[in-house]
Design goal:
The chain has four helices and 36 strands. By secondary structure, the chain is mainly beta. A six-stranded antiparallel beta sheet has the order 3-7-6-5-4-15. Strands 1, 2, 12, 13 and 14 form a five-stranded mixed beta sheet that branches. Strands 16, 17, 18, 19 and 20 form a five-stranded antiparallel beta sheet that branches.
C-alpha cells in the first residue's frame, strides 16, 4: 500500500502536483491589487491638455458654439463648432472614470469614479476645476480605467478601503495551493472572483443639450443623475455650495434620463419608468412600461414615447426594435407599434422628424406626423450611428470615432461636415 501511495505521488509530481497530508497541491497564478491613495490618484486624474486623438468615442453634448465629446472613462474632448462646416478640436479635459456631463451657466457637471466634478468654462481657453464632491453619485470602489485584469487562477483583494484606495495595477505571483481550494473557488458565497466580474460593464443657451443616452439632466436649478438603480438629485442653485439631496430608488439597471416638462422618463434594461417632479427635490413615481431585457434609451414628444430596444451582447435577449408607446395617460402607458431594427442606439426628435441611430445600419429618418404610424423618409447608410442631438438648425451625430453634422434643408437633411476623431 505504501508503495502505491509513493508511486501515485511520483506520477503527480510529473504534472506539477504534489501530495501532502491534506490532499494534492499545484502551482497557481495568484493576483493581488497594487493600491494608491485615492486623493492623490484623483488629483492626478484631472487635467486640461491640448487636443488628443479619441480612443473610444462615447456620448456628445452641445453647449453654445461648442461640442463636448466623451472619451469613455478618460474624459471629454472640446470641439469649437462656431463654423459647423469646419469644426475644430481645441482641447481635451482629462477626467478619468468619466462617462457623462451636463452644462449650465458655463459650469460643467461631470462624473468621475462616482464623484461629481464641476468645471468652470466661462473662459474656454482657461478651463478650471470649480469643485468636487466625493462619492456623490455612487461609491463602489475605484479602479483605474486603463488597468486590465490579469489572467490568474486566484484574485486576492485583501482589505481594500474603498473610500481611500485605488487599484492601479496587479502583482501576479506563482504560489502553491491545494487543488481542492482551486476547484471550490466558484462555489463560495460572495467569492472574490465573482465580485470582480460583477464590477466590470445654435443660440447661446444657459443649459446645454445631451443625447438620448445621457445619464445627466439639468432641469431648472436641479441636476438629476441616474446611476445603476437610483436617481441622484443635486440642488445646483449655488455652484459653490451644491446640495446633495436624497436619492430616489427606481429599479436595477436604469440607464438613461429624459424629460418632458416636469415629467422624467427613465430608460432601463427592464423597462421605462415615469416620475413626476412637481416637487423637484422628490421625484414621485407615476407608472412604468415593462419590456424584455434590452438597452433602452427613450425620447418623448407630445403623447408618445419612442424607445429603442437593443438586444444581443450584454444588452439582453430581446429582439431589437423601435417601440412607440402611447403616454397620453401617464398612469397607463400603452405599446402601439414596434418597428424592427438591427442594432439601435440613440434617437432624437425635431418637430415632426424622428432620428434613429441603428448602429451599423446607419441613421434612419422618420416622419412621425401620423404617430404612432411612422414613415421612413431617408436612410444614411455606410456609417455607424451611435447617438444624435437635434439642434435648432442642424443635427449632430456621433459614431465610430466620427462626428457628423447635418443641416436641415426643406423637409430633408443633408450632410454638412464630418470630423474624424
Amino acid at each position: 500500500m505504501k508503495n502505491f501511495v509513493f508511486l501515485f505521488c511520483a506520477i503527480a509530481l510529473s504534472v506539477f502536483v504534489s501530495c501532502d497530508d491534506d490532499g494534492p497541491y499545484q502551482d497557481y497564478q495568484v493576483a493581488r491589487p497594487i493600491l494608491q491613495d485615492a486623493i492623490t490618484f484623483k488629483a492626478e486624474a484631472v487635467s486640461v491638455t491640448e487636443p488628443v486623438p479619441v480612443v473610444s468615442s462615447g456620448k456628445i453634448y452641445a453647449y453654445g458654439n461648442y461640442i463636448f465629446l466623451n472619451d469613455v472613462n478618460k474624459g471629454f474632448h472640446v470641439i469649437d463648432n462656431q463654423n459647423p462646416s469646419s469644426p475644430e478640436s481645441i482641447a481635451f479635459i482629462k477626467l478619468e472614470g468619466n462617462n457623462d456631463i451636463s452644462i449650465k451657466d458655463d459650469k460643467i457637471y461631470a462624473d468621475s469614479y462616482g464623484d461629481l466634478v464641476i468645471f468652470n468654462i466661462s473662459d474656454i481657453n482657461n478651463i478650471s476645476i470649480a469643485g468636487r464632491i466625493e462619492n456623490a453619485i455612487y461609491n463602489n470602489g475605484v479602479w483605474a480605467t486603463d488597468v486590465e485584469y490579469p489572467q490568474a487562477d486566484f484574485y486576492e483583494l485583501g482589505d481594500i478601503d474603498y473610500d481611500r484606495d485605488i487599484v492601479i495595477g496587479w502583482e501576479v505571483v506563482t504560489e502553491r495551493r491545494s487543488v481542492e481550494e482551486y476547484e471550490s473557488r466558484y462555489n463560495c458565497d460572495g467569492c472574490v472572483v465573482d465580485s470582480l466580474e460583477s464590477f466590470n460593464d445654435s443660440p447661446q443657451p444657459s443649459t446645454g443639450q445631451g443625447g438620448s443616452l445621457a445619464r445627466f439632466k439639468i432641469i431648472g436649478n436641479y441636476l438629476y443623475v441616474v446611476d445603476y438603480s437610483d436617481i441622484n438629485i443635486f440642488d445646483i442653485t449655488d455652484v459653490e455650495d451644491v446640495q446633495v439631496l436624497d436619492d430616489v430608488q427606481v429599479a436595477w439597471d436604469i440607464e438613461t434620463i429624459y424629460n418632458q416638462g416636469d415629467i422624467l422618463f427613465i430608460g432601463g434594461s427592464q423597462g421605462m419608468y415615469i416620475y413626476g417632479i412637481e416637487n423637484p427635490e422628490k421625484p414621485k413615481f407615476i407608472s412604468e412600461f415593462r419590456h424584455g431585457t434590452a438597452c433602452d434609451p427613450v425620447v418623448v414628444d407630445g403623447g408618445y414615447a419612442y424607445v429603442t430596444l437593443k438586444g444581443g451582447n450584454f444588452c439582453g435577449n430581446t429582439e431589437s426594435g423601435l417601440y412607440v408607446i402611447d403616454i397620453s395617460n401617464l398612469e397607463n402607458p400603452e405599446l402601439k407599434v414596434i418597428y424592427p431594427m438591427d442594432g439601435p442606439n440613440g434617437l432624437g426628435i425635431k418637430d415632426d422628424t424622428l432620428f434613429v441611430c441603428d448602429g451599423d445600419s446607419g441613421l434612419k429618418v422618420y416622419d412621425k406626423t401620423n404617430a404612432p404610424n411612422l414613415t421612413l423618409i431617408n436612410t444614411f447608410e455606410n456609417i455607424v450611428a451611435y447617438d444624435v442631438i437635434p439642434l435648432p438648425s442642424s443635427l449632430l451625430m456621433i459614431g465610430d470615432r466620427t462626428l457628423y453634422q447635418y443641416e436641415y434643408v426643406d423637409n430633408d437633411i443633408k450632410l454638412l461636415s464630418t470630423l474624424q476623431l
